[in-house]
Write a structure and sequence with these properties.
With 242 residues, this protein is an alpha/beta fold. The chain has eleven helices and five strands.
Length: 242
């Protein structure tokens, strides 16, 4: 199978969204190969941020970002569709031209909700930790180069999984598969080694959780970060098509 016969989908998200659930959803497709944050090792190596499982992650995956792009994201695939779950802030200063022929889905979530969840694992986060600024910058890059970009809010998917997934698949040029709406409880073989620190809720799930509005309570530090992030979030929502 040549690279020209494949559809490569990059899901670009910040943390504590439904990106892992979407990876589980796409893994249910028989035509799709999934990758779990292939640039995470590169990101941790470059930043030195000691996330949970730091040493295990560095030891267990390719940490050369250019090699990851060449071998995993642009290399030959075993199935017709590649779904790469990515964090926007993992790109750092890597070249982005590999995205110009791909399908790019930017998954957003209200920054206050992201921060309330993220701060339970990472103490004293900063704006760059949640990827919202980088998502906006990536969208500008894709627009400037007339590349594919589809913006969707995670809450919208939870409110209407079937409709939103069908629209997302259509936007990426692949047929919707109802198998995407559920999965067996437990881990996925393609989970990153960090799954034990972050994926407990998804491992208990068998599908997208029903949407429920939650009360958001933030410390003064997190509230200031959320306010700083809102301009990027609003700008992305204006571009939202899903």
């Amino acid at each position: 199978m040549s690279a020209t016969e494949t559809t490569r989908i990059h899901l670009w998200s910040g943390p504590r969204n439904i990106s892992t659930a979407l990876m589980y959803s796409f893994a249910r497709r028989k035509d799709t190969q999934v990758l779990d944050e292939p640039l995470y090792g590169w990101y941790l190596q470059e930043t030195g941020l000691e996330h949970p499982g730091f040493q295990e992650i560095l030891a267990g995956m390719e940490c050369d970002g250019v090699a990851v792009i060449r071998e995993q994201l642009q290399g030959q695939l075993k199935k017709p569709v590649l779904f790469a779950k990515q964090m926007t802030h993992h790109l750092l200063h890597l070249p982005k031209d590999f995205l110009l022929e791909a399908k790019n889905v930017l998954l957003i979530r209200h920054p206050a909700k992201v921060l309330m969840s993220y701060a339970k694992v990472i103490q004293q986060p900063v704006l760059d930790d949640i990827g919202i600024r980088q998502s906006w910058e990536l969208l500008q890059y894709l627009r400037e180069h007339y590349a594919h970009a589809y913006v969707v809010d995670g809450d919208a998917i939870l409110q209407n999984p079937a409709g939103q997934l069908e629209a997302l698949c259509n936007a990426c040029g692949i047929p919707f598969d109802e198998a995407m709406l559920s999965w067996p409880a437990g881990p996925l073989a393609e989970d990153g080694v960090w799954a034990k620190y972050w994926y407990e809720r998804v491992h208990r799930s068998t599908g997208f959780e029903p949407y429920a509005e939650k009360e958001v309570q933030l410390s003064p530090h997190l509230q200031a970060l959320a306010e700083e992030a809102m301009s990027y979030y609003h700008a992305l929502r204006e571009e939202k098509v899903g």
